[in-house]
Amino acid sequence: MNDAVTPPSTAEGQTRCGFVALLGAPNAGKSTLTNALVGTKVSIVSHKVQTTRAIVRGIVLEGPAQIILVDTPGIFSPKRRLERAMVSTAWTSASDADLVALLVDANRGVDAEIEALLEPLSQVRHPRALIINKIDLVKRESLLALVARLTERLPFEKVFLISALK
Predict the structure, then answer these.
(1) How far is CA 23 from CA 76, 119, 148, in A?
(2) What is the pLDDT averaged over residues 156-161?
(3) Please, what is the average pLDDT of the chain?
């Protein structure tokens, strides 16, 4: 008898699984988005920065696809040892993922924290997606300008405009 687990298959006989690392500045909405997509609370959500101190994984099933979301600590300029470890964890998750998603708070736009993310993110050799969150808090023209500014700096395979709470 074979003890191996056989994954369910589609009519075409294919199943898919991939890791998606959610990167962004603190309080951009990474944990809120993870919880919304997973459909249950797997990550702590708080207005306090640095609530997520280690990676949290959540699984989303979509047809024959299994998406493993990797909620990472917010990336910022660390000053202490714990902060350096948290930021290092986030970047390690990016290098291990199949897709790296940069989550940007539309209300904050491209601030110093996002600027500091763009150069190291350009070195990641995986497909990238841009997720603009909290779009319900800004005007359409501002959103379009924000997307244009970010996509000029770094190519993204996909761009999503969302409000993780809605």
Answers:
(1) 11, 13, 19
(2) 98
(3) 87
Closest CA to 105 of 42, 23, 1: 23
Q: Residue 63 is encoded by which pair of tokens? A: 């047809």
pTM summary value: 0.83
Please report the pLDDT score of residue 122 as a whole number.
94
Cβ atoms 72, 58 nearer than 8 A: no
Q: Given pLDDT bands bounded at 50, 70 and 90, which one contains residue 1?
A: very low
The rounded distance, in Å, linking the Cα atoms of 119 and 5 is 41
Q: What is the pLDDT of residues 121-142, one digit of tens each?
A: 999 999 999 999 999 999 999 9
User: Do 111 and 25 meet the contact criterion of CB atoms below 8 Å apart?
Assistant: yes
Which residues are CB-contacts of 136 (< 8 A; sequence separation ≥ 6)?
A: 163, 165, 166
- Among the CATH numbers 3.60.9.10, 3.40.50.300, 3.30.390.80, 1.20.1600.10, which is that of 16-161? 3.40.50.300
Q: Phi and psi dihedrals of 131, rounded to 5?
A: -120, 115
Two tokens at 164?
Answer: 């993780």
- 18: β partners: 67
The answer, yes or no, to whether residue 146 has pLDDT greater than 60, is yes
| Domain ranges for the chain | 16-161
- Show the tokens assigned to 148: 């244009």
